[in-house]
Amino acid sequence: MTIDTGIPPSDVIVIGGGTGGYSTALRAASLGLDVVLVERDKVGGTCLHRGCIPSKAMLHAAELVDGIAEARERWGVKATVDSVDWDALVATRDDIVARNHKGVEAHLTHAGVRVVRGTARLTGTRTVRVEGVRAEAAPGAAGAPVPGTLDLTARRGIVLATGSRPRTLPGLAPDGRRVVTSDDALFAPGLPASVLVLGGGAIGVEYASFHRSMGAEVTLVEAADRIVPLEDADVSRYLTRGLRKRGIDVQAGARLLDAEVLEHGVRARVRTARGETRTVTADRLLVAVGRAPVTEGLDLAAAGLTTDERGFVVPADWDRLETAVPGVHVVGDLLPPPSLGLAHASFAEGLLVAETLAGLRSAPVDYAAVPRVTYSAPQTASVGLTEDGARARGHEVDVNTMPLTAVAKGMVHGQGGLVKVVAQAGGGQVLGVHLVGPHVSEMIAEGQLIVGWDAEPADVARHVHPHPTLSEAVGEVFLTLAGRGLHQQ
């Protein structure tokens, strides 16, 4: 059965309503294009409903718990956490998600984007069939899901934005209770007393940090020789030190040998970096070994498209994020590196593609100038090249580092941390800014401007940083690189 929704050919069809998809739709509509957005679940995607927003809400709660412990142990404030009301915590998290979701829907409605709810597949280079269309997809209609189909046509182009899903391990099927992925870890029942986290990237580290704040015994296993392996080596070292100080058992250079699901948890054997075999028993096993692009059922071949060996849709033109099929563009987690699989990178990609489809000339996304943040305790934040990455590209570099505890506000926080800057030798362009410590996610925007605008240390050193703040350490590092060192000799 085909549902006649009265939708004529549009200028643009966007498949997927996550951060990349809805940002494309909003910007295209603001430029006067007629846009249809197809989403089979809820607009907002993984970031809003299962990732960025709910996880950061939970991490904020964890920060409050940590603050009470610091108040008692460091500042003489006789406070304790009697218990955590899990239901109340979840209710607050869900309220934040729901309000954000309503906001996105309102933005799309106000912009005039027509949202079709169903599962899309390509039938050509400008045509899409939507199956399982829900009746509320029709303008002014409402009702229960209807097993119908809807054929759509785009005059200018199609944007693929179907996102990603967590990778899993053979023999470890997630059950939402004992074995969980990053998509369902926050929605598993209650707080476990112990957690084994597989994967020491940003997602694994954040979940390890959250559960430790909530009182769980945590073991974090990473196959690479250090956690957050894409970050600067000094950042990784400081983060490892901070996590271990909090009681997290960080095992880098380790690998899972096997795991057994028990009635009330899991038992796993882990080969450590020293070649020892350890048995870890935990209430919950969290698998955070990366994400895989979602293209199943999209029927890329119908539009003459293929994926690479990893499942990514590779643009033929990165400046326009356009595939080898003219008019078919791709944004978000379907893109391979150098795209970063980050929501804020997806926003930038959506803006670029929308402007391209509107006939505007827009600057390509500068992925080197996109910040990367891990919202653990301590946090990490970086932008640009690591020291090793800069040297590997043939740069002669000047490097300066400064502990956050070298400035007064860092001493107040008492959590350690680091500022590291990598610049071309002899006062040249700043190539990377790397931070680890409390609240550094709120400090990296300055680094983004420094790297993105090709600033040199002397350019930054001219600007006065407020005292006493953590950002003062950033200013001090640049003063020293510019030959004007004050507190740092």
TrEMBL record:
<dbReference type="Pfam" id="PF02852">
    <property type="entry name" value="Pyr_redox_dim"/>
</dbReference>
<keyword id="KW-0560">Oxidoreductase</keyword>
<dbReference type="GO" id="GO:0004148">
    <property type="term" value="F:dihydrolipoyl dehydrogenase (NADH) activity"/>
</dbReference>
<feature type="binding site">
    <location>
        <position position="290"/>
    </location>
    <ligand>
        <name>NAD(+)</name>
    </ligand>
</feature>
<dbReference type="GO" id="GO:0005737">
    <property type="term" value="C:cytoplasm"/>
</dbReference>
<dbReference type="GO" id="GO:0050660">
    <property type="term" value="F:flavin adenine dinucleotide binding"/>
</dbReference>
<feature type="binding site">
    <location>
        <position position="222"/>
    </location>
    <ligand>
        <name>NAD(+)</name>
    </ligand>
</feature>
<keyword id="KW-0676">Redox-active center</keyword>
<keyword id="KW-0285">Flavoprotein</keyword>
<dbReference type="Pfam" id="PF07992">
    <property type="entry name" value="Pyr_redox_2"/>
</dbReference>
<feature type="domain" description="FAD/NAD(P)-binding">
    <location>
        <begin position="11"/>
        <end position="350"/>
    </location>
</feature>
<feature type="binding site">
    <location>
        <begin position="162"/>
        <end position="164"/>
    </location>
    <ligand>
        <name>FAD</name>
    </ligand>
</feature>
<dbReference type="InterPro" id="IPR036188">
    <property type="entry name" value="FAD/NAD-bd_sf"/>
</dbReference>
<dbReference type="InterPro" id="IPR016156">
    <property type="entry name" value="FAD/NAD-linked_Rdtase_dimer_sf"/>
</dbReference>
<dbReference type="InterPro" id="IPR004099">
    <property type="entry name" value="Pyr_nucl-diS_OxRdtase_dimer"/>
</dbReference>
<feature type="disulfide bond" description="Redox-active">
    <location>
        <begin position="47"/>
        <end position="52"/>
    </location>
</feature>
<protein>
    <recommendedName>
        <fullName>Dihydrolipoyl dehydrogenase</fullName>
        <ecNumber>1.8.1.4</ecNumber>
    </recommendedName>
</protein>
<dbReference type="InterPro" id="IPR050151">
    <property type="entry name" value="Class-I_Pyr_Nuc-Dis_Oxidored"/>
</dbReference>
<feature type="domain" description="Pyridine nucleotide-disulphide oxidoreductase dimerisation">
    <location>
        <begin position="370"/>
        <end position="476"/>
    </location>
</feature>
<keyword id="KW-0274">FAD</keyword>
<keyword id="KW-1015">Disulfide bond</keyword>
<dbReference type="InterPro" id="IPR023753">
    <property type="entry name" value="FAD/NAD-binding_dom"/>
</dbReference>
<dbReference type="InterPro" id="IPR001100">
    <property type="entry name" value="Pyr_nuc-diS_OxRdtase"/>
</dbReference>
<keyword id="KW-0520">NAD</keyword>
<keyword id="KW-0963">Cytoplasm</keyword>
<keyword id="KW-0547">Nucleotide-binding</keyword>
<dbReference type="InterPro" id="IPR012999">
    <property type="entry name" value="Pyr_OxRdtase_I_AS"/>
</dbReference>
<feature type="binding site">
    <location>
        <position position="333"/>
    </location>
    <ligand>
        <name>FAD</name>
    </ligand>
</feature>
<dbReference type="InterPro" id="IPR006258">
    <property type="entry name" value="Lipoamide_DH"/>
</dbReference>
<feature type="binding site">
    <location>
        <begin position="199"/>
        <end position="206"/>
    </location>
    <ligand>
        <name>NAD(+)</name>
    </ligand>
</feature>
<dbReference type="GO" id="GO:0006103">
    <property type="term" value="P:2-oxoglutarate metabolic process"/>
</dbReference>
<feature type="active site" description="Proton acceptor">
    <location>
        <position position="467"/>
    </location>
</feature>
<feature type="binding site">
    <location>
        <position position="56"/>
    </location>
    <ligand>
        <name>FAD</name>
    </ligand>
</feature>
<comment type="similarity">
    <text>Belongs to the class-I pyridine nucleotide-disulfide oxidoreductase family.</text>
</comment>
